[in-house]
Amino acid sequence: MASRARTSKRRSSSGAYLTRDALRAIAGISDDQLRVWEYEELISHSAIMDIEGHREPVYSQSTLRRIRTIRSLAEDLGVNLSGIGVILHLLDRMRSG
Amino acid sequence: MEFKDYYKVLGVERSASEADIKSAYRKLARKYHPDVNPNNKKAEAQFKDVNEAYQVLGDAEKRRKYDQLGADWEHGLDQEEILRRYAAGQGARGTHGAGFEAGDMSDFFSQFFGFGESPFTARRSGPGHFESFSFGTKPRPQKAPDLTAEVRIELEDAVKGTRRRLELTAEDECPVCGGSGMIASEQKQGKVRLIRSAQPCTNCGGSGIIPTRRTLEVSIPPGVTEGTRIRLKGQGGKGTRADLNGDLFLAVHIEPHPVFAVSGRDVRVSLPVWDYEAALGAEVTVPLVGGGRVSLKVPAESQTGKTLRLKGRGIPARGAEPAGDLMYEIRVLAPTGLTAEERTLMEQLAQKREARHVADPRAELLRS
After folding, report:
1. Smallest CA–CA separation between B22 and chain A, in Å?
2. pTM for the full model?
3. Which terminus of chain B is more exposed, N or C, with fewer CB under 10 A?
4. Touching check for B108 and chain A: CB below 8 Å?
5. Is residue A10 part of a domain?
6. Looking at residue B194, what is its pLDDT?
7. Which residue in the set B116, B130, B195 is minimally distant from A22, CB to CB?
8. A64 Rama class: left (phi>0) / alpha (psi -120 to 50) / beta
9. Per the structure, how many domains does chain A have?
10. Is residue A9 in some structural domain?
11. How confident is the model at residue A42 (pLDDT cuts 50, 70, 90)?
């Protein structure tokens, strides 16, 4: 299941997944922050993929928007992690309903 | 990949009861906990192993599958064959427990118990998770952000409806990076496109958003009230496709009016009348909301505070909301600038009323 690297430089689109490193770079967050948010189940990886012989979690692009929401709630409105969890849960329900 | 003997990790027999397993786990977790062993990599690794073992053996269903897996392993079956059997026949439906992180699980655990329903699909749902999908299908695209704007209108416009030209700044998704703020280097991994590194998008400066000035001509229907929110579909942030555009929410505010006071859909007016008009009754001309006048009959002996109601002549109906009423609240005025003759007449009226002992209006005040 080794990676068949066919790398191309193009814009990201909604069908692509991000590695943990790419997610951190794009979202501008630290690894610790990401771990805490995952621990609190605010965000979660979408799948585990075999990348060059290593199994790594990958994230859908909607995770970026979710991180933007989390940061905005925490940094602009001062909502704590539990509160953010509740808000995200409600938003998920609104979107799915 | 090596077979992991979880029973050995927890130091229990294969026939151990659930309570024994729990007890062994607690004992070892305390022993190897990172707080008890700071900067001890070996203890940390053992702590992870113990946790992993308990994730499987502490769950009856997973333990049953693990026991079956162990038997297959011992019989020397090919690893791929075991994996295939496992995925097809049983489907590990495990989710990782609270307190666990993806990176803390061994390859063995991830392959057979972790993170997805089976090693071949990835599907997560429920609170805190994303939309379900399988490899090869695209996640549901997101809508561009909604936009809110305020519009201030006169009361007459609320009654009759109006059109307004609005200048607003919409947050359109950057067409270059698709709103992610980054230009990513993608590579193909089977059917899946994978982003492994990224640079900030030069078009939007990494924000993913391009502020765009937009002029919109919006129509405000009759019957809006203070705080009404009007939704203009697709007029918010511009998405990558037309159906992904955000919506524009217009919050309507009604400017205060010098004559009419709006309360919900009802409108109140203070109606001054002379004392003789209030006493004898009169026909007075009054203004209507939204323009126009109407003749109104003030009944004889009306007092200050009496309300005359014109039903349905307040803010007009909109949707399920019925039209409000227009209410005139009488305010009796004492005559001013009396001539000598008028004064004499007033004095005569006072004497006549005194002579027939008309009730004292202050009697209530003096009773206590």
Report:
1. 22
2. 0.46
3. C
4. no
5. no
6. 84
7. B195
8. alpha
9. 1
10. no
11. very high
Higher pLDDT, B268 or B248: B268
Contact between chains at B128 and A41 (C-beta distance less than 8 A):
yes
Structure tokens, B245: 């555009």
Mean pLDDT of chain A: 80
Closest listed residue to residue A62, CA positions, set A40, A91, A30, A39: A91
pLDDT at B287 over 50: yes
Domains of chain B plus CATH, in order, are 6-112 (1.10.287.110), 147-254 (2.60.260.20), 261-355 (2.60.260.20)
Looking at residue B86, the DSSP 8-state letter turns out to be I
For chains A and B, what is the number of CB pairs under 8 angstroms?
Answer: 146
Residue B329 has pLDDT above 90, yes or no: yes
Query: B131 vs A62: CB contact, 8 Å cut-off?
Result: yes
| Burial of B111: CB neighbours in 10 Å, binned 0-12, 13-18, 19+ | buried
Enumerate residues 176 to 195 of chain B having a beta carbon within 8 A of any beta carbon in chain A: 176-190, 192-195
Q: Which of B88-92, B224-228, B235-239, B287-291 has the lowest mean pLDDT?
A: B88-92
The range of the structural domain enclosing residue A85 comes to: 17-96
Q: Closest Cα to residue A46, out of B92, B102, B190, B180?
A: B102
Query: In CATH, what number is assigned to the domain containing residue A64?
Result: 1.10.1660.10
pLDDT tens, residue by residue, B89-113: 443 333 333 333 334 455 555 555 4
Residues of chain A positioned with their CB less than 8 A from the CB of B34: none
Chain-chain contact of B193 with A14 (C-beta, under 8 angstroms)? no
Provide the shortest C-alpha distance from residue A29 to chain B (in Å).
14
Chain A CB contacts of B204 under 8 Å are none
